[in-house]
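Re: Re: ligand-bound prediction request (bumping)

Still looking for help on this. To restate: I need the protein modeled with heme C bound, output as structure tokens. Inputs repeated here so nobody has to scroll up.
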Amino acid sequence: MQFKSLMTLAAIGMASTSFAQDSSSLSVDGEAMVTEVAAPSHMEYVDTLYSGWRFRSPETQALQTDDFDNPGMIFVDTAIDTWATADGSEGKSCSSCHSDVAEFAGLRTQLPRVEDGQLVTMENLVNECRTDRMGAKEWKWSGADMTGMTGLISLQSRGMPMNVAIDGDAASFWEKGKELYYTRVGQLDMACSNCHEDNYGVMIRADHLSQGQINGFPTYRLKNAKLNSIHGRFKGCMSNIRATPYKEGGEEFKALELYLASRGEGLVVESPSVRN
Ligand code: HEC
Ligand code: HEC
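Reply:
Sorry for the wait, this slipped through. Here it is.
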């Protein structure tokens, strides 16, 4: 790492001591989760992938081991009601057409994906059904309706390994996401990689830096007591380095999401995870 970014890290409170991810193993309601896996061959500088869960305190970790204790499940329960509630000019609910949300098992592991030349996330798929098939209003990207629903749909893939396509027509989006990941931005002139690749394990103020994985999203954060979207988290990290964040749902964050999903290949879906 360059001297300049070391100085920057010192300025924002990164300690010189580094603690490895802990060695606890995660099981949720008795089902074992893979929180550590060999990195895929497309990653040049990292050998082992770790779930963000491995960097959290024992108290925060415990909240994710039991659905009854997981505060994110409250929002998932609300989404179960929404699923069956009619909305929009067609008088339809999700359940009018999708008999059981369990039919979405595996979907989370493959998103985002390319459809007709466009990179598409889970939020896009949900909103497409709302606007084009229900005649209902689009949900806000990081609003409670959307994060609850993406939580419910992602939960159907819990325990399944992330496995997004990055070749073929996804390749150009992936390249763009990779470029964004390594590009320094903001007043602190830092890239995602400076924290989540070069310095995971380091303490930054009271926070233990992880690899910035997205396999647990949407994530319940104790800090704001709600489910947080992937793009919402990207926005927060960009603001923290005093950069102007890209737009939620915009091309930059969608490409970054694809790239990060590929950096988590083999880690299992943990949604809804719990973080500080
Ligand atoms: C009028 C029927 C209809 C309604 C109502 C509807 N959908 Fe869909 N949905 C479809 C069709 C058709 C597709 C595309 C074909 C497919 O993948 O099943 C689809 C696709 C999807 C997909 C992508 C599935 C995949 O495997 O690619 C998701 C996720 C989804 N819908 C969620 C929802 C949610 C959440 C709601 C309620 C907010 C909803 N849908 C309401 C008909 C509907
Ligand atoms: C100054 C250091 C820093 C930079 C630069 C940074 N982040 Fe973060 N990020 C953090 C901290 C601190 C956390 C909370 C602790 C953790 O999970 O690492 C975090 C958390 C995350 C998480 C949540 C991980 C989880 O398991 O819940 C994601 C995803 C993430 N960052 C993505 C990004 C992306 C994408 C970028 C570049 C746009 C970025 N970060 C840039 C410091 C940073």
